[in-house]
Design a protein that fits this description.
The protein has 148 residues and is mostly beta strands. It has a single domain, classed as Galactose-binding domain-like (Jelly Rolls), CATH 2.60.120.260. 3% of the residues lie in helices and 48% in strands. The strands form 2 sheets. Strands 1, 2, 3, 5, 8 and 10 form a 6-stranded antiparallel beta sheet that branches. It has a 4-stranded antiparallel beta sheet with strand order 4-9-6-7, with no helix packed on it. Strand 2 and strand 3 (27-31) form a beta hairpin. The longest helix is centred in the middle third of the chain and has 4 residues, at 50-53. The relative contact order is 0.30. Residues 142-146 have low confidence and may be disordered. One of its GO terms (biological process) is protein transport. Pfam families: Sec-ASP3 (PF15432). This is Accessory secretory protein Asp3.
């Protein structure tokens, strides 16, 4: 499994206060010199409430106890000042775990108790960002063995 996640629009999940956000030819340019460290720049959810949010889920279905790799395709100024934050939720939408993945490529395991999840671009003193996509791919720990 390999899926690319794009930033298609600004909405309530985008940090807009003082932000300059431009969409040009498949790249989202985000600039904000005053965004506080620790704020989410943008968020994607695997589960939404269409009547309330007026948007569809933007994340692929993940399987419990499976290993995945996530890759952020973006230019970041200053370097290494945007992290990917994952939050996992149970059946009643209570957060059961969160983790911050540092670097452009990292690995994670989808928890057994999780029913949905979210991905956030997490600010660690970024001033400018040219975002292309986030890619999630399966990691197969052991090859499939068939009996003959």
């Amino acid at each position: 499994m390999k899926a690319k996640i794009y930033w298609r629009q600004t909405d309530l999940s985008t940090f807009r206060y003082g932000s300059d956000v431009q969409f040009r030819k498949g790249v989202v340019y985000f600039k904000n010199l005053l965004i506080p460290a620790g704020e989410a720049i943008h968020r994607w959810d695997s589960k939404t409430h269409y009547q309330r949010d007026r948007k569809q889920p933007m994340l692929p279905l993940l399987f419990r106890n499976r290993h995945y790799q996530i890759h952020l395709e973006a230019e970041i100024v200053p370097e290494d000042t945007v992290y990917v934050k994952l939050e996992y939720y149970d059946r009643s939408d209570k957060m059961i775990k969160s983790e911050i993945l540092r670097g452009k490529t990292a690995q994670f395991t989808y928890p057994n108790e999780a029913y949905s999840y979210s991905i956030q671009l997490f600010n660690a003193s970024v001033t400018e960002l040219a975002f292309r996509y986030i890619e999630i791919s399966s990691i197969y720990a052991t090859p499939l063995v068939t009996k003959e």
